[in-house]
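Assemble and predict.
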Amino acid sequence: MGRLSTEEQRAWTALRTTYALLHQRMDQQLKRDAGLSHLQYEILARLAAAPERELRMAELACAIAASKSGLTYQIGQLERAGLVQRRACPSDVRAVYAVLTEDGASRLSLAGAGYVGLVRELLVDVLSPEQLRVLAEGLGEANRRMQDFEDCDGSLG
Amino acid sequence: MGRLSTEEQRAWTALRTTYALLHQRMDQQLKRDAGLSHLQYEILARLAAAPERELRMAELACAIAASKSGLTYQIGQLERAGLVQRRACPSDVRAVYAVLTEDGASRLSLAGAGYVGLVRELLVDVLSPEQLRVLAEGLGEANRRMQDFEDCDGSLG
DNA sequence: CTTGAGCGGTTCGAATTTGAACTAGGCTGG
DNA sequence: CCAGCCTAGTTCAAATTCGAACCGCTCAAG
């Protein structure tokens, strides 16, 4: 249980602050460009990538690491804005699908350029391809373990 | 302005979710162990590492990537809990120092073991030393650039 | 000196987030 | 079939967060 080595500390701190700064920048830019928060953008992006452009609430909550109630709130906002629709599931009355609307898709692509630009400018272009590869692999593995252990839900709601 | 390559996307997504999951876990564990939020822990940790165990509000806000008002709130909480004290700056009446108290220091060390354990278990031990080094270097550089560009304050509050 | 711009923090209201109930449906053993 | 437990989402109040407006102070230019 000793302290972290300098290198270990640097790695963790860098991870933390990189994410924090990037997140902050994205929030500002997305809000300016398309009136979306970073979280909302991620939600729309997940939906866009999903088959039929729809996902169950729980899957979505898990994917974006938000609490159940937090997602309910955000989907509410997005629905009011017409970017998403709720759809009941025929086989299970309890379940709800969030579906990306046409408007949602175009809003997403409106925001997309700026978002991608930011990821490039502040992350991708700063790293060598090799560094990027290592990062994707290493953190990908860390992720997998956490999700496995936690079953991607548990206390999240 | 094209899309991100699969690898680029993987890297960014992994960064995002790794941080999110780690943050969530920390929040829970710290709350349980010592009644601190992750943010509060970071604040105390920064103070502990600073000379004289004190920092100006603005420096602190910058260090933890919080908004000015957000920090005011959290320092308020920590002060009520007796873990931190505000101290005026003799040379500049406007400035305020946040000082770690003895209680703050012991609370911090109380929480420290669990915190470090989590960082080890979920991040450090999952990566090879080489991966860790690359991560620290790469993200460290990304960080430096963002902070430079933004002068570590700007629109943060 | 004396504006006037800018800094450092705080305050305030609105938006978001959280966790703990709660509502309802499903699902399994008896 | 039925009780008891689990699951999916929502609701609600409380805690946190954000941004804009604000206050008092500093500092450099005139």
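DSSP finds six helices and three strands in chain A.
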